Every structure is written in C-alpha cells, then in structure tokens.
Amino acid sequence: MATSQCYSCISRRLKPSPLRAAFMGILGNRLSTTGLKSNQQLQPKVKGKSSLQQNWRLVSAICVERLPVISSSTNSLETRVQELFNTIEEEKSVISDYEIDLKNRKAASLDRLKALDSGMKSKELQELAREEIESELQELEEEAKSFQAASRTTQADEEDDRKSLDRKLAESLYLLVKKSRHQHAWQMPQGQHEGEESLRQTAERELKEECGEQLTVKFLSNAPSALYTYKFHKDYQSDHVGAKVFFYKTFYNEGQIVLNTEELEDYAWVTGQEMQDYVTPEYYRFLSKFLYLPRRENDTELID
Amino acid sequence: MAAITRAMSVFGLRSTALSVRYVIPIRGDGKKKKKSKVKNKLTQQQQQKAKLNSKLAKAAQQEQEEAKKRKKFVDPPVDSKWLKEDRKRNIQNNNPEEEERRILLLKEWSRYKMNQHRSDLIKFQDIYKSRNQALLQLKVLSPSLYAKALQADPQLFPYQCNGPTFTPPIAGYDQPEAEVTTK
What we know:
The structure holds 2 protein chains of 2 kinds. By secondary structure, chain A is α+β, with helices and mostly antiparallel strands.
C-alpha cells in the first residue's frame, strides 16, 4: 500500500514521534509537504542569500472572522443518511408511554360513545372516536405552531448587502478593506509595526485606527498565524526591500465598523467563496493555508 | 535431570531408575565442612523473597477489602417495563432491496466521513506549519518581538463561545415565563 511505503521512506530520514507517525499513516501521499523537519527548528528555510538580513518592513495584519450563526445546510448524502438514521432508530425503539396512553384514550372515547348512542354502527362510532382524538391533537399542534422561529435567510441576504453582518449566517464572514490603489486594493486590515509594541498590539491598534473603536474582537494568541512576504517595486526599495506581514486570526465579538475614510475607501464582510472576486489569487492562496476557504476552481498553480 | 538441587538430594528424591545412586539418603554428617557463606547467602535471598511475597500478599488483601467497601459503579439497569413483550414493535423488514440500499448508503457515508476526517487532519497540519514558519522568520528578524509573541495570553481563558443553532436568534425576543404545570 502506498501509505506504508511513504512512511517507511520518511522514517529513514527523520525519526518521527508516534503522533506524527499516526499522521503519516493517515495522510498517505501528502507527506513531503507536511510538518516541519526536526533540523528546521534552528535554521529557517531562506530563499536567496541571507534574505532575512536585508531590511524588511514589519507589518501586522488582522483577519477578523464572524463565525457562523446557524448550522450549515445538509447536502443530499447527508439528508438521505439523516432519514435513514431516523428510521433505524424508530425501528429499534420500544413503544413509549405516550403511544400507549393515546391508544387507551381512543378506546375510552369509543366506549363512551357506545354508551351514549348504542344505535349507531360500530364503524361510525370508531370514526367519531378518532375524530375526537384528532381534534385534541390538532389543538396541541396549533399551540406549537404559534411560535415563529426566525428565518435562516435574512433581508441582508436578499439585498446582498456586503457591509452587513447579518448575511450568510451559515458561513464564516471575513473582513476586507479597500485601499485606494488599482492593484491589490482589497486586503485584510494591516499596518506597520511602531515603537516598542508587540506585533499583536500593532494588529489591535491598526484595527482600531482603520475600523473604529466600536469593533471588538477576540484574539486567540500572542503568536501570529501566518506570514506573507512581498517585495516592493525597485523604485521604492530605499528603506526596505519589502514587507513581512504577520497575520493574526481573530473572532468577531460585537460592534459596527466606522471606517477611517482617510486611509480606506471601502470595506466588506465576505465569505470564502466571494473573497475570490475581491483579492488577488496569490493572496487568496496564501489565506487558504490558515483559513477554511474553498479551493479556487481555475487555479493551475495550486499544489495539493 | 542432570542438575538435581542439593535440597532435593537431602530428601532422597528419586529422579529416574537409572540414577539409583542418588537415592541413598545423606544423613547429617555430609556437608559439615562446607557450611559456607554461599549457603547463607542463598537462604538470605530466599528470606528476602519470602518477605517481599508476604508483603505483596498483604497489600493485595488490603486492596481487595477496600474495593469491597467502595461503591460499585454499575450502569443503572434498564427498567424492566421496557423489556416486556407488549412494548415491542413488530416491524418486519424482510425486503432484501431495502436492506441492500441501506448497506450501500452506510458505506457511502463511511467513505464520506473518512474523507472529511482526512482533510481535517491535513488542514490542521497546514495551520500548524504556517504558524511555525511565521514564528521561525520572526525569530531571525526580531528576537524581542519573537519573545513577546511566545508569551502566553492570560486573558484567553476562560473563553466561552456559543455554537450555531438551526435558526438565528430573534431580535428583541421577550421570552415568556415558563408555566409550571402539576398533574
């Protein structure tokens, strides 16, 4: 089997821990791109000669995610299996007290009707008894229906209001802001590191500056989730060669956005699928490393 | 049985008919000279072993007594009323087509779930890898920022987060008080 082959070839080079061994076994062919090698802890993989010794601008970016509010809708396989599980459960169950009670009540009402009007035929009596019980049940049903749950699709869904957080409740929404330039205009809020603050404090500060004081988010750690590197155009490489953008992943808590119109033109809360229409393909590919984003359909450079 | 122990030979243990010579009991005088330290050591070892064994036996006995005193956590038995015959549903599912349909659907489900789990594991590895690479580069770029990034966040826990429901919450919903009904 391919899985065991791959595991054995890796084990000759590294000495994986039992946990990694379990991963390797499960992941099969996806071995060369997974995890860190043990010798990589001290010397990071660098492209080009001493690129890390050049002058890079340190930038913090913040990824704000509004988690789903409602459960996702089931696909066809899931609905079929759900039905099957329900029928199996019903078949394996025993008769409940309620069912016995219902049966007794039907019999009781039948007896009562017989006592009242002994002239009617048995079939008619049975019909009447059944109707009595059914009307009782109907009353209970109507009482239950008097509670109206909120709809799963909202008004914002219909209007396709990208600034609203009430949209696409079954999916995660990510915050994107638009800078006033032609290329690579849409991105996550980011800003340069200043002074003695930590990278996380930079991210917090930048979010407040760009999106207002009302927006509150929950950070998950002091450490960044990912690093995006890009080089500036040669004309602009006086101070720094490029920028190293450290991404912090956060969950939206509460508050509305009051956009800083000096720096930014626009903002939007978008799902993973919609994000492809806003950001560049490289940016999207980078974001899918640490976010659950659907795969791009026409991406030829994507290595699985 | 070449190696007959000294102890056995003292009691005149007969091994085989061939080894008749060994049957003759050695009384008393045989080993006076060689009352050596070796014999003492052996008995010492034997004594130590015996002590250990007795200690173990005592501990085992105590454990048994304590276990009896402790409450037995047994699953509460099913109420016998559910096991009576009149509670059984007599559903006859003898349709072979239906059986096959069910089996195939369950197999498809199992494959689907396995693939989901597999992709989850791959995703976890990707997330872990991307964070590690970011931290590695940060370490080289700025050791002070790296140190700050490694610090634990005291405000993270206790963290409470509500999962998704089937329908969204109704805005401005006034929950009616629960009615207590007694039968």
